[in-house]
């Protein structure tokens, strides 16, 4: 399969169409990013990297990091974790407060903000230095040492973090939160503020295409069954109230972030990261989704 030619074709077509959106500005620091950047990196199971465009520029991975934190918590807490957070699509915006109330403090899934806060709380219970250990883990599975936290982005979100703070206290009121709210929010804002290039992000997702084994970390990260379940969660919940649309148009498990990144996997074939900062009204990258739609059309395969 000539992945390099295919992603170059995809890149050209997306650039020609030039569909636009809006850069996230509710985290003020993210609003400063150049909206014209666009990169793609695909990593096959042998570790070959195929890349085009701005694939070597670090960007804020935001909610994509929720896949990494879930991976760190899942084997340690399965199955008890699933009494604290559900595995159903939310059909609601990622930061909905109303839904958390009518679901009685049990978030719909680990990728909406409330669910990811429960995961961050579980991380704080299990790891002595959660933020450092998340970074170590991601650098390990990306096979790099270059992933870092952008403290301006972290502080920017922290200073405008009323909604996540509200969600965390709400979870605590339902006794679904074990650690101090401030401590967990610090970990959550830190992992959302991690910066990675498309190449490193695709490398860090490679184990999910490879039955849980990371060729870069040279070890089994998750059992095959846990890896399959994370892929199932990405397919059904990775794009919040646009998860159905992403499954329909692209047909791969994937996860988006408001920094404009999308990471996706084709099990047993490849992992891929696409980045372009402009978002649609659901908070997902317009060009990244379009690129992945063209990719699976050109490949003539997806999960389906
Ligand atoms: O908590 C937030 O709102 C952000 N740190 C992450 C949200 C996000 O990336 C949603 N994804 N599309």
Automatic annotation (TrEMBL):
Keywords: Acetylation, Hydrolase. Coiled coil: none annotated. Signal peptide: none annotated. One of its GO terms (biological process) is glutamate biosynthetic process. SUPFAM superfamilies: beta-lactamase/transpeptidase-like. Its EC number is 3.5.1.2. It is an enzyme of class 3 (hydrolase). Substrate binds at residues 63, 113, 157, 164, 188, 240, 258. GO terms for molecular function: glutaminase activity. It catalyses: L-glutamine + H2O = L-glutamate + NH4(+). The keyword Acetylation applies. It holds the Pfam family Glutaminase. Homotetramer. NCBIfam families: Gln_ase, PRK00971.1-1, PRK00971.1-2. Belongs to the glutaminase family. This is Glutaminase. It comes from Algoriphagus hitonicola. The lineage of its organism: Bacteria, Pseudomonadati, Bacteroidota, Cytophagia, Cytophagales.
């Amino acid at each position: 399969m000539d992945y390099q030619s295919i992603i170059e074709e995809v890149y050209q077509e997306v650039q020609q169409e030039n569909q636009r959106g809006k850069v996230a500005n509710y985290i003020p620091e993210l609003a400063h990013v150049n909206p014209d950047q666009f990169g793609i990196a695909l990593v096959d199971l042998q570790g070959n990297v195929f890349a085009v465009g701005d694939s070597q520029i670090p960007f804020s991975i935001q909610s994509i990091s929720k896949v990494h934190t879930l991976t760190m918590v899942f084997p340690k807490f399965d199955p008890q974790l699933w009494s604290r957070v559900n595995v159903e699509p939310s059909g609601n915006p990622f930061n909905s407060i109303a839904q958390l109330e009518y679901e009685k403090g049990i978030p719909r899934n680990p990728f909406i903000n409330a669910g990811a806060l429960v995961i961050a709380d579980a991380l704080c219970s299990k790891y002595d230095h959660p933020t450092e250990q998340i970074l170590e883990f991601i650098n390990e599975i990306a096979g790099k040492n270059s992933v870092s936290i952008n403290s301006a982005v972290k502080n920017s979100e922290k200073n405008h973090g009323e909604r996540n703070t509200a969600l965390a206290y709400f979870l605590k009121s339902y006794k679904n939160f074990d650690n101090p709210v401030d401590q967990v929010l610090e970990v959550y804002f830190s992992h959302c503020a991690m910066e990675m290039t498309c190449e490193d992000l695709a490398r860090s997702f490679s184990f999910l295409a490879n039955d849980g084994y990371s060729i870069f970390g040279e070890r089994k990260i998750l059992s095959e069954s846990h890896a399959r379940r994370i892929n199932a969660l990405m397919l059904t919940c990775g794009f919040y109230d646009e998860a159905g649309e992403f499954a329909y148009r692209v047909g791969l498990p994937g996860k988006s972030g408001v920094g404009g990144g999308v990471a996706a996997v084709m099990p047993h074939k490849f992992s891929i990261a696409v980045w372009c900062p402009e978002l649609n009204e659901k908070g997902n990258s317009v060009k990244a989704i379009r690129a992945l739609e063209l990719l699976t059309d050109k490949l003539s395969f997806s999960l389906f």
